[in-house]
Amino acid sequence: MTVRRSVVVGCGGYLPEKVLTNDELAQRLDTSDEWIRDRSGITQRYIAAEGEMTSDLGTAAARDALSAAGFTAADIGLIVVATSTPDETFPATATVVQAKLGADKAMAFDVQAVCSGFVYALATADNFIKSGQVDSALVIGAETFSRILDWQDRGTCVLFGDGAGALVLKAESGAGTTADRGVLSTHLHSDGRLHDLLYVDGGPSSTGEVGFLRMEGKEVFRHAVVKMAEVTVEALEANDLSASDIDWFVPHQANKRIIDGTAKKLGISGDKVVVTIESHANTSAASIPLALWVATQDQRIKRDDLVLIEALGGGMTWGSGLVRW
Ligand code: COA
User: Fold this and answer.
1) Most C-beta atoms within 10 A of its C-beta, which of 37, 90, 241, 250?
2) In the beta sheet, which residues pair with residue 163?
């Protein structure tokens, strides 16, 4: 049986120039490098420059991914940007990226699932490719979370950063087995009753202002370990695979303790886990594609490797995906 698969043919990333260290934060907040490192694993984060927007970050990552794929922007049929920090309330940041790239043949829209955004965007693009509606897609996670942080709230502002990552997907035919290259499956969930654990206290239809991120850290932590382990098991079972088949585990980068806890629950050894949180912090929808970018740049993730991704974010939303690189 021949099936259509969405195969990753290029991966790109972009981080803003400015680095903000824990020590710099400790000079203006009641916090310390030691507290932030111990509780989260973070030592620094990147911060977008004044005037540098989510679409600029996303466009830079997309250009990098197109170049890695040997594609031009005109080859792209679909652009999905996962972001919770769009340039404007509308239009979609994806259309701004489209214009900046000159991807004239593409349709473009945003997906909003906060830190799970990239998994949702990948699932969306994969379904467009599998249905035959497009033959190629750019899936981008791009965020300027620094713009929605309350810089007086030490419980949240130390945890996040800015950045963007992107994948180019191309339709190829596979045999319908887990040996195929491409997206093997995605698994998405949400539970809107958990809104109050992680949200932004503003928006066009409520306050008319952008608002700031608010979080019940301990509760989010509790849900994260349980739900991310569950949704990765779901991905493995759906494909009749086990944790030992995984070459690389690339989780959302929210907290090193969450990453370690989930990997341990799944029985995945530390040397198979891609961790970027120490230098990137939590870049929300950009964290997984940025981690994929780092691990392809340093040649850890190679063609035919089996990659497991998973994330949880505001909503709450959570999801996983299995990709043979
Ligand atoms: N520096 C120093 N102290 C801090 C601090 C900071 N930046 N932030 C909070 N504290 C203090 C708290 O005020 C609290 O003090 P108290 O005991 O006197 O009240 C103490 O540290 C412990 O806070 P607590 O919230 O219990 O810490 P924690 O061990 O749960 O770690 C998080 C806090 C936020 C790092 C952790 O809960 C977490 O990572 N949660 C998940 C967050 C997440 O993943 N979010 C994104 C999901 S996509």
Assistant:
1) 250
2) 143
End-to-end CA distance of the chain: 21
Run means of pLDDT, 10 residues per run, the chain, 325 residues: 96 98 97 98 98 98 98 98 98 98 98 98 98 98 98 98 98 97 98 98 97 97 94 97 97 97 94 98 98 98 98 98 98
* Homologous superfamily (CATH) for 182-324: Thiolase/Chalcone synthase (3.40.47.10)
Return the domain boundaries, the chain: 3-174, 182-324
Q: Give the contacts of 10 (CB within 8 A, at least 6 positions apart).
A: 65, 66, 67, 68, 69, 70, 71, 167, 168
State how far the Cα of 33 lies from the Cα of 37, in Å rounded to an integer.
6
* Sheet architecture: strand order including 136-144: 3-14, 162-174, 136-144, 78-82, 107-111
In three-state form (DSSP H/G/I as H, E/B as E, the rest C), the secondary structure along 88-105 is: CCCCCHHHHHHHHHCCCC
Give rounded-to-5 percent helix, strand, coil for the chain.
40, 30, 30
Name every protein residue with a CB atom under 6 angstroms from any ligand 1 atom.
31, 35-36, 39-40, 115, 154-155, 158, 215, 217-218, 220-221, 224, 254-255, 258, 282, 312-313
Q: State the distance from the centre of ligand 1 to the C-alpha of 2, rounded, in angstroms.
A: 50
Reading the block at residue 325, the tokens are 């690189």
Task: Give the CATH superfamily of 3-174.
Answer: Thiolase/Chalcone synthase (3.40.47.10)
